[in-house]
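Quick one, tokens below. Sequence please?
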């Protein structure tokens, strides 16, 4: 894809975003929150649009130039539109996080390689945590996080797209972190400049899955669609009761095997090649809340790995043996410990785990594993979530779609 076409794709997206922005901005009353007659007016709303140009990190051969175009995929352009809420100080967590903002965003990117990589589009949620504010309130230094889902990747195909080892599936997870400086130059207008890092991966649901990582500066224009909240004086000394709780979580995911024998033995490839298997997990965890923002957690992972039977059969085939896997071979037990961060009803979880009971099978998920995910409480103590389970602090094994219950 030539540079002229690349620019036209991004420009067309920007035009569409600006049109949406203009239509929404023209009717601020329709988006305005009701304003109760007390010191907390309720959240105000805003729109942000952004453009980014940055670098694609050269983490696999496909990105380095081993692709059909023969050219490295080194840069990207992206555009996005976001709708958000500004907290008003009516809740303790507003003060703890220095009156954060949050919202939903729509993102589109271009890599100058539509034929092999596609033109991905993401829908995501974001959270902006002001780390520092000026006394006038016009300047803010922010930390940002975003988590969502991406579609429209041009996925790997052994016939039509055999070089794309970055994206094995047309869908992926979108994970982003960044920092920026925000300046309010008019009553409802702000300019924002910063840098973000973004990771795309399907979490091992379909291989090959080397993923894609990118980094670059970003600029925003922000418009408050109704009267912006004037944040109150920040309360200090907000604490939470230090107490124990128990969580029970069930999860489901898929593990895909991109097996080397697929190119070595046609019979094995026909029977086992590129198969997906269920990964089921029951987690029982105890937690101790150490602050308003965080909790320590530890517990047990009971796991069923549906790939183990075929991994045993493949190993036995190469050894000239036959094997009939036992039901217990599919099971393992792990211990985990971790740290969890709270922001109202949303939790970010970081766990480290190690299997203490497992059968040694060539190709099985590693004994030492890590888990990074998001948990959202949806009704009382019930929650749903999505985790990425990985090993070696970065190599994804599978996604975990979760549902669970917390007992205080």
């Amino acid at each position: 894809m030539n540079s002229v076409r690349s620019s036209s794709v991004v420009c067309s997206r920007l035009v569409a975003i600006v049109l949406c922005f203009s239509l929404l901005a023209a009717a601020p009353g329709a988006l305005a929150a009701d304003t109760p007659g007390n010191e907390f007016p309720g959240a105000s709303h805003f729109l942000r649009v952004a453009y980014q140009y940055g670098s694609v990190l050269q983490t696999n051969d496909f990105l380095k130039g081993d692709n059909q175009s023969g050219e490295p995929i080194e840069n990207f352009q992206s555009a996005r539109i976001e709708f958000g809420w500004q907290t008003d100080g009516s809740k303790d967590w507003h003060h703890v996080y220095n009156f954060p903002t949050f919202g939903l965003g729509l993102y589109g990117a271009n890599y100058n390689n539509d034929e092999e990589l596609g033109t991905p589009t993401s829908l995501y949620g974001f959270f902006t945590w002001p780390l520092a504010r000026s006394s006038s309130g016009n300047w803010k230094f922010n930390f940002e996080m975003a988590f969502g889902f991406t579609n429209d990747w041009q996925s790997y195909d052994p016939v039509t797209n055999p070089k794309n080892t970055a994206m094995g599936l047309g869908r992926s997870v979108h994970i982003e972190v960044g920092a920026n400086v925000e300046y309010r130059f008019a009553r409802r207008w702000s300019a924002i400049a910063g840098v973000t890092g973004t990771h795309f991966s399907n979490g091992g649901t379909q291989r090959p899955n080397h993923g894609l990582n990118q980094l670059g500066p970003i600029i925003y224009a922000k418009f408050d669609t109704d009267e912006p909240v004037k944040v109150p004086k920040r309360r200090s000394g907000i604490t939470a009761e230090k107490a124990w709780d128990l969580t029970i979580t069930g999860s489901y995911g898929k593990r895909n095997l991109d097996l080397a024998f697929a190119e070595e033995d046609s019979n094995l490839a026909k029977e086992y090649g590129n198969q997906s298997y269920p990964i089921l997990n029951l987690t029982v965890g105890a937690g101790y809340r150490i602050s308003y923002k965080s909790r320590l957690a530890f517990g047990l992972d009971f796991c069923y790995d549906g790939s183990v039977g075929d991994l045993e059969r493949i190993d036995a085939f190469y050894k000239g043996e036959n094997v009939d896997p036992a039901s217990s071979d599919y099971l393992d037990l792990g211990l985990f410990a971790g740290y969890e961060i709270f922001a109202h009803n949303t939790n970010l979880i970081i766990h480290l785990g190690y299997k203490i009971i497992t059968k040694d099978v060539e190709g099985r998920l590693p004994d030492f594993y890590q888990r990074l995910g998001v948990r959202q409480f949806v009704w009382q103590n019930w929650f749903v979530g999505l985790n990425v389970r990985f090993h070696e602090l970065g190599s994804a094994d599978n996604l975990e779609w979760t549902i669970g219950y917390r007992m205080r």
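The chain has two domains: 3-224, 244-407. Residues 1-6, 15-37 have pLDDT under 50 and may be disordered.
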